[in-house]
Structures are given as structure tokens and as C-alpha cells.
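Troubleshooting log. The previous structure file for this entry was overwritten by mistake, so regenerating from the original sequence record. Sequence copied from the archived sheet and checked twice against the printout by T.R.
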Amino acid sequence: HVPFYEEYCKCCYRAMTPAVAEIDSVVDSSVLSLLSVTLNKKIAQCLSKMHLGAYVEKCETESFVQEHLSILLDKISVDFLSSLPMEYAPVLAKNIAQFCIYSFISNMALIRPLGENGKLRVTQDLADSELCLEQFVMNSGSKESLSQINDGKPYAELRAARRMLFWNGLDGRNTTANDIYKGLIKEVWLTS
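Regenerated output below.
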């Protein structure tokens, strides 16, 4: 009696697998991707605030990430991720985390002038964003850590940005293009 039931369950599972895959595909393309785009726009708006003086030398704020980004990610986690089924929440969280890393670095790279104090605060915010995003991804129920998303490429870029901030290969006025090239190819952050 029991072996027949187990065999019947296995047969049903095999028969339903293509339908479940199709439903997942529709949810991913029609729901999650649109929600991801909408939430990523909110993140882009949040990150654009760093151009309002977050890293100038005499800025009074402690941490841009703690004041802006972590609050938004917590809100997204509570308002959106918690209401999604467990198989979809990690997918959305990983998409948002990846976008957040690339957007943070892109915005950070455009900040000028960036003095030593600003560089130190950016470095602290890179570390804060790493912790904040790791917590965001793990709270979504993901089995992957931040360093495993998209084969670790966004995480590697996040880590490389920290080292890139203090590269001084363009500081010398008499440095030739060949010398700059030789210095660049030796840098770990460029090849990671």
C-alpha cells in the first residue's frame, strides 16, 4: 500500500516539473524582474545622494550607508521580501544586492574632489555596505552569501574598489603612459 503511494508521488512530481518550471519562469520575468527594476530605481535615487557632499572634507555625517542605504534596505526587506514566497525572496534580494554594489561603486568613482578624510569615509562605507548587503541577502533566506552572487564578480568589484581608492599611480606629473600601464598591471585590485 505505501510503496504504491510513494511511486504515485514520484510520478506526479515528474509530470508537474515542467509546469512548475514554467510558472517560475513567468514569475521571474513578469513579477520579480519588474519589482527588481522598481526597487533598484529607489536604490539609485538613494545612492545619488552621496553627490550632495557626503564625502567632502568637512562633512558632519558619520556614515552615508548607515544613514541612507541600510534604512532603505531594511524597508525593502520588511515591505517586500518578507511578503514573497521563500523561493522568490532570495532571487530578488540577490538582484538588488548586485545592483547596489555596482551602483555604489559607480557613484563613488564619480566623487571629486576626494581628500584623504573622504577616502577613509568611503572605505568605511564600503565595509558598512558589505555588512549591510550580506545581512540583507541572508535575511531573504538565501543559501548563497554575498561573495557567491553571480560567481563572486560583484563582491570582487566591491573589494577591489577599496584598494583602488588609495592607488597613487597618477600622482606623478612626469609619469609616462608606459609607467602608468606597468603600474596598473601589477595591481591586485585590477586583476581580481
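The longest helix spans residues 2-48. Archived copy saved in two places this time.
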